[in-house]
Specification:
single chain, about 775 residues, alpha/beta, OB fold (Dihydrolipoamide Acetyltransferase, E2P), nine-stranded mixed β-sheet, 27 helices, transmembrane helix
């Protein structure tokens, strides 16, 4: 009885530490109050022990102490021991530091790298190899791009760079990749673009970490020369980490079938390697375990000692090391200790998706796998039952976090894990064996070829599974309450009965209540009142907006588009739609064919059904041609004066100029007014001043105006603003863009007409709701709780 209570207290204390760490990171409980509370709980615990108080009092004091320690750890993580590098943003500086191992990437335009900075100098003295007395010690990393040079063979030690330190730019949208948080977790604090003459190699020698990084780069190069294409890139990512060379399509395919965790080094890989080595070594003596730990440590070094690798290594060793004892309590204690140690070392990992998924899946294997394994072995052969139980446990345990980050459920995930994971793990082992045997008469390259031959058909199968419309289902975002109720339900269904005192009747009642709560929350979210809502999506220097009508019908106006291979459709717009639980679009309207408005349209059309497509009357651009190849939507070419309806919401085409073959697409940009009983919005695309003047005599007022051409001085003439008379003006614009948008003259005209101005470069995504006559505007960068 006492043993069970102790284990329950340890688990509760670990959860309290996690909550405290979150409170500290969120600045809800600062460092000094956390330390004072910790001291009070410590005194209470000491007094309770001396007075031989009851278990409940001692447990409460210990759990409170763990919460305060977690808060103190999280608050301390926000304090920099040295001056942060971002203090010098916008200044011409000279940075002294070392190149991060494995960060050097060569492109046709030049070389990019990540510099871990040790010192900064702000004066303009001559560049030298020694650290000057005027340099200031700093902490942080900077992303450096060296224009037009391949420096991959030259960078072996310390580096000095000189240039203007610029701020990192990110997109602030719900549903997508949180690059701002990722930069914080990686301690990236700025970026710099320089010429080759502004980089100097200092006399510092190559560190051991850089030497191992060079060894890993050589292994990666050998593999990808032997196995070219996506197969080689996937094998390199699976064995050495990173996504170099892995296409966006391959990553989407793996995510769609629930295998995204296999594309980079994770706990699954470490577990496979550990199991394989244990089979080879057979005898589990102290020497064997020391050798095993040494091999795994060197493998982690090859992978760059990145946080996900370290977490996977420690968690897997804890799980397998504790597995010598068949008792759950001992394994649970070791797991809890590892989690607390990891967060003491770096509290910010609590907010990292990799840590969260690794934590939940390992916890699931500890607490839910035994029951699920027994259930599966009743009906299936032992081997298949074990594989199925592991896969099912991992997916059930991580489900709320998978929904939180991807907003989709993989319907083919179980089948893919059951049938494909063993073959992918075999390819992984062949590749790792190839690394070890590279010096042996080409045997290593032969193993690479075998791994590539095995992986090629697997990639085709994964793509086929992902391309089916049944592979995934969009579920939207889950409220925090849903996640808590879901985990309680898992504990009641698959947790060991030794951990609670519920009778069978009480357990069934609680299970029923949990199911009712989950269903009730889902029904409320589906049928609650929906005001007319407009989402202006942050796509940088481009336009994209989503209109959701009171009847929950959807209109997407423009899809953004950036230079290079960054697809705003697949990486920004689609995650935003999935976050909102949108599975199809009733209408897609493109104002004109310029890339910054239509660049993401093809990816959107490829992934979700579109009922109606409205295009301007102009020569179709390459982006519109790609869109037409990927959709079966009803095609409509806009004409001035026509109206379309989405339930009780009208889409009025105010202006639809006919573009000629030699005219600028901006001259054929649509001006559209969306109106319902709740309110009205005017969308102008990149309409020119001439178009606006022609439309001014025909348009009715609109409460919200999407400012034309990202706020350029040639837009938003006074006659047009007087006709629209907006309360709120939204400028969709990229941060620090080279065009100088928005123009000062436009901002002055908007102020003169009394419009409140909101900008996506400053606010991120904007959510505007029409509640009767009141217009409410929320910024995702500063008001995430309203999204």
């Amino acid at each position: 009885m006492m043993q069970r209570q102790l284990e329950q207290i340890i688990v509760a204390a670990t959860l309290a530490f996690l909550l405290g760490c979150h409170a500290g990171l969120s600045k809800l409980l600062p460092l000094i109050p956390a330390l004072i509370l910790a001291a009070l709980f410590l005194l209470l615990l000491a007094w309770g022990c001396r007075q031989k108080a009851g278990v409940k009092l001692l447990a409460a004091a210990g759990i409170g102490l763990c919460f305060c320690c977690g808060a103190a750890s999280g608050s301390g993580a926000m304090r920099q021991p040295q001056l942060p590098l971002q203090t010098f943003t916008g200044q011409e500086v000279r940075l002294f530091g070392r190149v991060e191992a494995g960060s050097v990437k060569v492109t046709p335009q030049g070389t990019s790298l990540v510099l871990a900075c040790q010192a900064v100098q702000t004066n303009s003295a001559e560049l030298g190899s020694s650290l000057p007395d005027t340099a200031i010690a700093v902490s942080g990393k900077v992303r450096v791009f060296v224009q037009g040079q391949d420096l991959s063979e030259k960078i072996t030690g310390g580096v000095i760079v000189q240039g203007t330190l610029k701020p990192l730019t990110d997109f602030a949208n719900p549903g997508g990749w949180d690059s701002g948080l990722w930069n914080e977790l990686q301690d990236l604090q700025g970026r710099m673009s320089i010429k080759g003459s502004e980089l100097y190699l200092s006399g510092d020698g190559q560190s051991i970490r850089q030497y191992i990084g060079g060894l890993a780069a050589g292994l990666r190069s050998n593999l990808q020369h032997t196995v070219p294409g996506q197969a080689g890139a996937v094998l390199a990512g699976m064995t050495l980490g990173g996504y170099d060379g892995i296409s966006a399509q391959t990553r989407e395919d793996f995510a769609a079938v629930g295998l995204a965790h296999l594309l980079a080094v994770s706990g699954t890989h470490i577990a496979v390697v550990t199991g394989f080595l244990l089979v080879l070594l057979r005898r589990r003596s102290h020497c064997t375990m020391a050798l095993l730990a040494g091999i795994l440590f060197f493998y982690a070094a090859l992978c760059g000692f990145k946080p996900p690798v370290l977490r996977a290594l420690l968690m897997s060793l804890a799980l397998f090391g504790a597995g010598v004892s068949g008792r759950l309590p001992q394994r649970s204690n070791i797991f809890c200790a590892v989690v607390i140690l990891l967060l003491c070392y770096e509290p910010r990992w609590l907010w990292d998706a990799g840590f969260q998924l690794s934590f939940t899946t390992t916890a699931g294997l500890l607490y839910f796998y035994p029951v699920l394994s027994c259930l599966c072995t009743r009906y299936l052969p032992v081997g298949i039952a074990e594989i199925l139980a592991v896969s099912l446990t991992a997916q059930l345990a991580a489900l709320p976090f998978l929904i939180h980050y991807f907003h989709q459920l993989s319907l083919s995930g179980l089948a893919a894990n059951l049938l494909l994971v063993p073959l992918l793990e075999l390819a992984l082992l062949l590749t790792l064996a190839g690394y070890a045997l590279l010096p042996v008469f080409g045997l290593g390259k032969l193993l690479f070829l075998l791994a590539g031959l095995l992986l090629h058909p697997l990639l085709n199968i994964i793509h086929w599974l992902a391309s089916g419309g049944w592979a995934t289902v969009t579920v939207g975002s889950w409220p925090l309450l849903c996640g808590a109720v879901y985990y309680l339900l898992l504990l009641l269904l698959f947790g060991s009965s030794d951990w609670d005192d519920f009778t069978a009747c009480e357990r069934r009642l609680l299970i029923g209540l949990c199911c009712c709560m989950l269903v009730g929350i889902g029904l409320y979210d589906k049928f609650r009142p929906q005001p007319l809502t407009v989402h202006f999506i942050d796509v940088g220097q481009g336009d994209a907006a989503l209109v959701v009508t009171p009847q929950r019908q959807t209109l997407l106006i423009d899809t953004g588009g950036l230079r290079g291979d960054y697809d705003t459709g697949s990486r920004i717009v689609l995650p935003y739609l999935r976050y909102l639980g949108i599975r199809s679009l009733d209408m897609l309207l493109l104002s004109h064919g310029h890339h910054d408005h239509a660049g993401g349209a093809a990816a959107v059309a490829k992934n979700i059904p579109i009922r109606r497509l409205i295009l301007p009357q102009e020569q179709p651009s390459a982006d519109i041609q790609a869109l037409l190849k990927n959709t079966k939507a009803q095609l409509i070419y806009a004409e001035s004066g026509t109206n379309y309806s989405l339930g009780n919401t009208a889409i009025q085409i105010i202006s639809a100029p006919v573009g000629s073959a030699d005219s600028d697409a901006n001259e054929s940009s649509l001006i559209v007014r969306v109106v319902s009983a709740d309110g009205s919005i005017v969308f102008t695309g990149d309409a020119t001043e001439t178009e606006e003047l022609l439309a001014a005599g025909q348009i009715q007022p609109g409460q919200v105006l999407k400012v034309s051409h990202h706020g350029s001085n040639a837009s938003s003439s006074m006659p047009f603003l007087a006709a629209v008379s907006p309360q709120l003006a939204v400028i969709s614009v990229g941060a620090a863009n080279s065009y100088g948008h928005p123009g000062s003259e436009t901002l002055q005209r908007l102020a003169a007409c009394g419009a409140q101005v909101r900008r996506t470069d400053q606010d991120g995504a904007l959510k505007i709701t029409f509640d009767g006559s009141q217009v409410k505007c929320y910024s995702y960068r500063y008001q995430k709780e309203f999204f």
